[in-house]
Predict the 3D structure of the following.
Amino acid sequence: MSTHQPDFPSHAASNDVAERDEHPQRFENPGLPPHKERLSDTDERSAKRAERQVVALLVISIIAAVGGVAGYFAFDTAGGAQAVRFSTLSIGAGLGIAMLCIGLAAVHWAKALMVDSEIVEERHPITSDELTREEAVRKLTDGVADSRIQRRPVLKGALASALLLAPLPFAVPLIGNLSSDWNISKFRHTAWANRPDGAQGRRLARDPEDEPIKASDVTIGSVFHVIPHELGKLPGEEHFMEEKAKAVVLLVRIDPNELIEAEDRKDWSYDGIVAYSKICTHVGCPVALYEQQTKHLLCPCHQSTFDMTDGAKVVFGPAKRPLPQLPITVDDEGYLIATSDFHEPIGPSYWERLK
């Protein structure tokens, strides 16, 4: 009769395991692979060709930057939405192409022309003594030498020109908006104040169709985006987009029993139809998200929320003032008209607002 004895590691095997754990197998540092010369390192014609390619990219960047600025001025933004679209497209395309070509030129320059020798730098304590600063300056000097920019004046000139001109498509519109025109009274008056000859008031029209709106067309819960009828056809309305930006209105019809109206504003609405400026009183974004159930109007930029049943007062968000209300009624033909301009400046607050 035989008995099975469990296998236990011998004392010698245990020592071997412990020794391996204490002294894991080490590998020799393989070092860097052999440096491979590029074609531009051995053939001067190839290097010149790469230089011309980099210069060509930088020249394209220069042309794009100048073209973007030229396109920005070429399209008169007073000519309507199409002109604004092309002007914006020109400046954006010019800026994008200019920056893209500079990036491509930098990558191609680094890969084809700059020194690509492998360098090993041992770690050392970071200090700020004089020797360290001198070493840093020396490395910067060596870096300039490695880029070989001193041997290529055409490349150097193209790079400097591209870097100087590329920001123009961004800077020119910004500088243009910092003009000396600080006539803030423009915010106190809109095209709703203009009256066609012999008319009772400016008719409310659908945006962008410019179709006058009858009160009978506005059902409870419906929403209309509104502009002054025939905007741009009366004196003083030559700058159509500017006038439209100030005069845009949101029109809704609410059950009159749900409206909370101040005594001095009871005649500003018509049978539950109310009209408020679409320009948010926070930073001027268009408030156009209407919640039919809550009767709330939301600004998509910063979530300011206005209660349309209670004078468009702020119920949430960073806005501090209600939306300006446009007084409305109907004319002899049943069309909705504005009885006056807004009674307060539209848009965000500014330093000379009285309230």
In short: The chain has two domains: 39-116+142-173, 184-338. The radius of gyration is 36 Å. Residues 39-116+142-173 form one domain.
